[in-house]
Amino acid sequence: MLDVARHFMPKEGVLRYLDLMAAHKLNVLHFHLTDDQGWRIEIQRYPELTRTGSWRARTKIGHRASPLWDDSPHGGHYTQDDIREIVAYAAERHIGVVPEIDVPGHSQAAIAAYPELGNSDVIDTASLTVWDTWGINPNVLAPTDNTLRFYEGVLEEVLELFPADAGPFSPFVHIGGDECPKDQWRASDTAQKQISNLGLPDEDALQSWFIRHFDGWLAARGRRLIGWDEILEGGLAPGAAVSSWRGYSGGIAAARAGHDVVMCPQQQVYLDYRQDAGPDEPVPIAYVRTLEDVYRFEPVPAELTGDEAARVLGTQANVWTEVMEDQGRVDYQTFPRLVALAEVAWSDLPDSAERDFADFERRMGAHYRRLDALGVAYRPPTGPLPWQRRPGVLGRPLDGPPPQG
Prior knowledge:
Layout (H helix, E strand, L loop, with lengths): L1 E2 L7 H13 L4 E5 L1 E2 L2 E2 L8 H4 L3 E2 L2 E2 L8 E2 L3 E2 L4 H13 L3 E8 L4 H6 L31 H17 L10 E5 L6 H5 L1 H10 L4 H17 L4 E5 L12 E4 L4 H8 L3 E4 L2 H4 L15 E2 L4 H5 L10 H4 L2 E4 L11 H8 L2 H10 L10 H17 L22 E2 L8
Parallel strand pairs: 1-2, 2-9, 9-10, 10-11, 11-12, 12-13, 13-15, 14-16
Antiparallel strand pairs: 3-4, 5-8, 6-7
Helix pairs in contact: 1-3
């Protein structure tokens, strides 16, 4: 999963990453195109999404508690022709592209472009701009029929740009569904009337109604919805799939309920997490996840039965780019750990303890030379090079081992 919403990656950079994926036999790009900090895909019927929503005035440097700012505007977007080129380039390399359009949270960029999408009876949505910092944003979409119609219009264009037959997993469309605070809905007369009109018990059920609407809408068009594991709350239609990011538990629950699962638990395969506890590690985020940690990752939980385990479609590593401002930073966080993920994904060893990390390290000696030839600014096994460090940029290191679950 490549996040181009927090920091935009130009088309040429995306094509380069498709080449790197193909070199490692990775066959799906989960393309995170929209978030609070930027809207990156041209939607012709809603031009303000990119005219306004693709640019922010400044950007927080480092963790959101950092006092540092980059005061230059940041932005960019892919035209529809860019998207067609990316999808075709991927297909030629046997890679499917799964677009993500986030709803109902992570949507401030869309609200900044079209204020009527927000909870305007609670806050002055016309004053919102594209968000310039990180974290969980309280400004979420209004749960109204008008919002549904708007995003149906968005998705109609998305389906045309990402054909269902363009590669592995191409029928899927990711709708996010994570980290949606309900405070504005609780304070909104409009949201409360919607809850009453629909006969729902609470705001959590209202989010489930929102997600279920697009589940049915996509299914009617021969497509499949996938979302982060929060979409399990309130129940899902049988065809929907789940990206299990909050540990294994969401994926286990989804598989046992008969849903397909992509395993991407943050404790194991979030590549924005730091790679070492040393003081030179640039912008240290969360827990230490070393190359060996990723190599030891087991995508299929042992507690699943054979039929349940068959629901695990695969695994992915998530590259969130809040603290990755350019290609070099993305390379550093992604490689060489993505190489370990590729071997894990295609391994036929049922137990991660059987994987020989010493042999993997030995083979990486030759592979580092390939990465050098490809111009990949990976993290060397001996630690960051001087120009890869970010002294003085505040991160969010967490002590102790990552929580499981």
